[in-house]
Amino acid sequence: MIENKSNRILIYLFFGFAFFIKAHAQNNTEVKELEEVIVTDQSEKRAKKEASLNVETVNSSFIQRNLGGSLMQSLQRIPGVKTISIGSGGSKPLIRGLGFNQVIVVENGIKHEGQQWGADHGLEIDQYAVNRVEIIKGPSSFMYGSDAIGGAVNIKPVPFPKKNTLGGNIDFTAKSNNEQIGSSLNLFGRNENWFFDTRITSSDYGDYRVPADVVHVYNYAVPLYKNRLRNTAGRELDWHVSAGFVGEKFKSSFYFSNIYSKSGFFANAHGLEPRNVDLELHDKSSRDILMPYQEVTHTKISNTTSFEIANHKFQTQLGFQKNFRQEWSHYVNHGYMPPIYPADMYAPQDLERQYDKEVFSVSVKDEFSIGKHQITVGLNAEKQQNQINGWSFLIPAFNQFNSGLFAYDKIQLNELWMLHGAVRLDYGKIEMKQYTDWFESEVSHNGQTVQEYLKRSEDLAKTFNSFTWSAGVNYNPGKVSFKANAGTSFRMPIAKELASNGVNYHYFRFEKGNPNLDAERSYQFDLGIDWQENKWSVQLSPFFNYFPNFIYLNPTSQHDIYYGAGNQVFEYQQSEVVRYGGELQAKYQFLQNLSGEILAEYLYSEQISGSKKGYTLPFSPPASVLFGINYTPEIKHLKDTYFSLDYRFTAQQNQIVPPEKTTASSQVFNLGLGTKLQTAKQDFIFSLQIQNLFNTRYLNHTSFYRLIELPEMGRNIILSVKVPFLIHP
């Protein structure tokens, strides 16, 4: 009853505020009749029309307007883009249902390398430092190599400051659901040629709340104190520095960044004994971070240099990354693990797992024109090594090397027709190291029981070679534009898929790798239709995708007896897979300041061979449609004012792979408003969101916590203020 009253109050407040603003605008502005003027970013529009793949581009204003707990959560409004969310502060991308190592993230031209194979591993990106993001839907291997088999998230560099300027901006963010407080300070400057750009970001949040008093974790009831998921608090501290030289034909930029985060795991759904959680200890504070928790530090150093010689534009990139991730959890013995943790162990008693990855990368690219041909050739190479530590084992330490050579040709036949063609050669090698248990287990040999240190992984080396190609055509007769692209992609299997052999305590399952896996390959056909006329704008992007050897984690009838509590064994296998679907974006301008839009997406996938023939793929997002209304009144002393209301309907997902569970349909409302206050000397940019307006209880099929029936975050009011400033014009 109280909940219904609060919902009505929120609606009355919103519409009352809207009517007040409208009346204020009518009473305080001079009425003039002008011809309609529509301003668009022509360069971005032209680039999208000329691209062979389906590409969506958003800027920092879009991110601020749709601000979520992480960058990918802020991009979920884009059709075809979803996330695997890890609580309120972390997530990883899903593009058309593919994620993990099937989608790459590129930041400032360097492929972002973390521990992206785990569903509990978030993306170490500071969304306040993001200026422009390009989402590429579909295979992008000819540009980026392995791991781009499902698409790419390309985070573009921040533009160079204008000459002889010194300025910056300050961002403040507050969120009601988990009492998050965040701020980010940016300072930049430039003389004629030399520039610098710095940013520091801090965020602190408490346990987030869900619209439930009790949740059931694998058939046992867990009471929630004040609706909070205990131990999901966290904090983040990031810094960025870029500096360099900008000339007419020579540019060189150095980038330095460090992303640090510490966040807890829902205490009742992690570890060896989640039932033995000290509820009184955890419920004393909603902002403390107790075990189990993770700490991640991601350091990145890179240089991008470009220069022009005659008709050639050369670009070189050098990069170094270090991803250091630790999972802390109380030691609990299972199987033949000793009841008392040895004092002379190489790892601290509470260090469950540690991954320490270092990555070195280099790339060279040359762009030039010959007649109607715009040609790009390039090569890149990457070397990474990943060391492990901790008392629990899942994947072995490994070294990996990847290299590729590509050529891309864009042919402008005439004003209407454009052709695209690309080829790429790749070579990859991965070497995994032997790992043996630090404790003895009982093993039977010929009827006799002996004690042995079991070997969990063998020394293993695998090499992979690949040839991929892409061909496309664009036809732009005017109000309607068409594009079609066909191509192939590939992906090297990763260490987890080849050699994992341990309990994944986040999912209460035993995961076992397959050293006989081949490189994953994909064949895809994409279409794009864009029609714009007067008040209408419509985009349709259907696709078809075929995998002859898709890699997936297959549940078996076996159960582990050595390292857990009888967890079900999952093994990596390959099968033929067919996928098809598409996205629809339609917008109609009812009035000069009132518009509506429809954003829809659909995906179907099916395994057509293997032990799970006839099933879909894990984490397959259901169909959804979003209806949005946007009102942009003109108000004196204010600029870019908007009111928006989104209604998203997500269909039920019955196509699952056991032990996944079916997910019911859901209906969620999000409300937003914002404006820019212009004073004599200073601008203030405000945005306010109310996510999950009616505090609806619903499940997200792609969420990390879906398997334990955990509903999504409840109502969340987000206030964001951006204050740009200029010290020296």
UniProtKB/TrEMBL annotation:
InterPro entries: Beta-barrel_TonB (IPR000531), Beta-barrel_TonB_sf (IPR036942), Plug_dom (IPR012910), Plug_dom_sf (IPR037066), TonB-dep_rcpt-like (IPR039426). It is a multi-pass membrane protein. It comes from the Bacteria. Residues 397-693 form the TonB-dependent receptor-like beta-barrel domain. Its main location: membrane. The keyword Transport applies. Keywords: Cell outer membrane, Membrane, Receptor, Signal, TonB box, Transmembrane, Transmembrane beta strand, Transport. Signal peptide: none annotated. The keyword Transport applies. It is found in: Cell outer membrane. Residues 48-152 form the TonB-dependent receptor plug domain. PANTHER family: HEMOGLOBIN AND HEMOGLOBIN-HAPTOGLOBIN-BINDING PROTEIN 1-RELATED, TONB-DEPENDENT OUTER MEMBRANE RECEPTOR. Belongs to the TonB-dependent receptor family. This is TonB-dependent receptor.
